[in-house]
Structure formats: structure tokens, C-alpha cells
Amino acid sequence: MNIKRVMIVGTMVAVISFGNTALSGSITSASSVARLSAVDNRNPGKDDLLEALNQTSDKELYESLYEGKSLYDIAADQDGDIDQVIELQTNQLQKQLDDRLKSGSITAKQYEAHSEELKEIIEQSVLTSFG
Question: Is the model's pTM score more than 0.70?
């Protein structure tokens, strides 16, 4: 399993969970298959998430997460760019919200509410340790 996808899907679950609480159940369920990737499709082989965290491999990132470190901790330890990590996750989840709005699975009001709280939830997520 691709650890980047696990992290991003975990963030997405947090967004959906927190959003559901904040909006009193007005969120519709998300697609059961998340199509997320931190790989830059314009530059195959380049992994934006690993680059932002200053990690050399998926394995290194996985081990750091397994040790219970947050993304913030990993970036701080490796002189990475946590703002870039937040931006990557925000952009990917915003694109998913855009797609859900276009497909009709959420309303414009839900889209607006999710978009407003997206960055804050992601910022909280990168600070969360799993240890």
C-alpha cells in the first residue's frame, strides 16, 4: 500500500469526519475509492510529498510515520517544508471537492463550507502524531 495515499486518505477522512460534525450531518458520503497521488504527473518520477518532507524514499517516510511522528515532526527533523505539504494536501482535496461538486454528489453550499474549513483541518492533521 502506498503510504502517501494512506496519509492523504487519512486527512480526507478527517476532513469528512470534522466537516460532518461542523455541518450537522450535511455531508454526503465520499467515494469509496480515493484517487490521490503526490506524484507530479507533469514530471513522472518526481514525488512532491517526499520532496517537501525531504525524505529519500517511501520506506523512510513510512518508518517515520510508523514511529508515531507527525508530518510536521518529519519535516522539522529533515529540514523539510511543511507549508508545501499543507499546500499539496489542500490542492488535492480541493480538487476532489471540485470533482464532487461537478458530479453533483455535494451541493454548492456544502462545497463552500468544506472549502472554507479545508486548510485549517489539514493544518491540524499535519500536527497530529500517531504514536
Answer: no
